[in-house]
Amino acid sequence: MQKIIKIIIIAIIFFIIGVFFISLNRDVGYNTKSLIGKKITNINLEYFDEKKFYKDEDLKKNNYTLINFWASWCAPCRDEHPLLIKLSKEDNLKLLGVNFKDKKKQAKFFLDSLGNPYHFLAKDKFGKQSISYGIYGIPESILINNELIILKKFVGALSSEDFNTIIEIIK
Question: Which domains does the chain have, with CATH numbers?
């Protein structure tokens, strides 16, 4: 009986050590490069103020669409907002804002006080829709063309460099 217990303990130790070494070799960094060039399908984002949904056809009408995931409680979202206002003035680009895990009243106050750069406004109240876009935090933005191909993904608040990259792509 003691031999069996020793064998089980040794097996458990080897298992733990094996799991440890396997986990050391995993790439745990969040990498969005694999999304570039892929097509977004089955768009189903609920309007912010209505019980209607944005679908694939709605975004195919635009030459380029920047899908921006944001929330009123997100400080970096506030930082990137002036760049979104500037981008909203570009003729070749439409902005779809997806309000992420936010309260409607606070989101409206955010947009009323800072300005609403979005041509389209959707909500993801529980954060479940955003997962299908590879979103794991906010702010994040995805630039797509009228074929719904992901051209670029921006993790974190948009910077001046990101702004210039977007302008270069849509021109």
Answer: 29-170 (3.40.30.10)
